[in-house]
Design a protein that fits this description.
Layout: H1 10-19, E1 21-24, E2 28-34, E3 42-46, H2 53-70, E4 78-84, H3 93-106
Parallel strand pairs: 3-4
Antiparallel strand pairs: 1-2, 2-4
């Protein structure tokens, strides 16, 4: 996922979380809002309860790769925030990717 396609500022995270539509499953919470810029953007967030810094960075890299494989940011019409839940740790990469894909379909992102 390119840096252009990332939500980075805390203010942007908060505005997406407070005004966006919420979708939930076992591995993710997804907040979706129509995009305001040319390209769609995604943000990834994790709690400290999920693991130490090394594990959190690993999970963020995995979710970035999932987003890159599932979504085409040039035609996507929404900005979204994916919050990784504690259940993410207990599932395989393929199961988590499948969960994210189902959640994106439910949110009508894909």
């Amino acid at each position: 996922m390119k840096k252009i396609n990332r939500v980075r500022k805390s203010r942007e995270f908060q505005s997406l979380i407070h005004t966006g539509r919420k979708y939930v499953n076992d591995s993710f919470v997804l907040y979706v809002l129509p995009k305001k810029e040319e390209q769609a953007r995604a943000g990834i967030s994790l709690s400290r309860k999920i693991g130490n810094a090394v594990m959190r960075n690993k999970y963020k890299r995995q979710v970035r790769m999932m987003c890159q494989e599932l979504l085409d940011f040039s035609v996507l019409e929404y900005d979204f925030i994916a919050i990784v839940r504690y259940g993410y740790r207990e599932r395989s990469y393929a199961d988590n990717k499948n969960n994210l894909e189902k959640l994106c379909r439910t949110a009508k992102i894909i």
